Fold this protein.
Amino acid sequence: MSAFDFLRLRLRQGVRTALFPPRDGELPDRFRGRPVLDRGKCAGGCADCVGRMPTGALTVGPDGGVLLDVGASQFTPDESAACPTGALTYTRDYRMASATRGGLVSPAGEVDLAGALGRASRRLFGRALRLRSVSAGSCGGCEAELTALGNVVFDMARFGIQFVASPRHADGIVVTGAVSTNMRAALLETLDATPEPRIVIAVGACAIDGGPFRGGSEVAGGVPQDVPVDLWVPGCPPHPLTILDGLLRLLGRIEAGDR
């Protein structure tokens, strides 16, 4: 193909980069967004659904009430099937990233969306982020979505966000995977090599809660508790828009109250 043929092809293709935020109807039909729990459809207060749930998406709170843990959800048909009355469904809302682990747990599936980093951190980082990815025992799904963030469709570089090869050049790390026993030391060494102040982002159900490997003898069940996390991004795997939305909220490019 000659250079002129290539230019003609690109002109015919037009602009491939998706708008952000996306317009209505741009998400695929099979997209599963934030799960919600309709207690009005729960027979017996949803307690029966907890026992049938194949993941940690439903839990019993301290007061005995049922809670929906978006961070532990694996967004599978088996989860919704555990509530035969149709109480658990998935919305079209891709906005789910929270600054706290507790912000992903609520009675009906509400999420306390992340706000901006503190003023000092934002002044230091500016409007850009350089991140080092650490795959700490993952199936590869979350890494595929992180890779997609750099393609022409999502193009996170237009927002000043890039992945770098060395933690010494990074503002923080992105952790994926359930943190296997063999990867724990590598994760901590990568974190130590990242200059302070630094941020830590847990991406995917495995990094948040262990995912399908939760309770396994060879995994830590997500990011170790002694590692402070600044952003929790649910999904199995998270859609690139979910990750991008969380990162932009962290940078203060999206107001905390915007949905």
Summary: The first strand starts at residue 35 and ends at 37. The longest helix spans residues 181-193. The two ends are 45 Å apart (CA to CA).
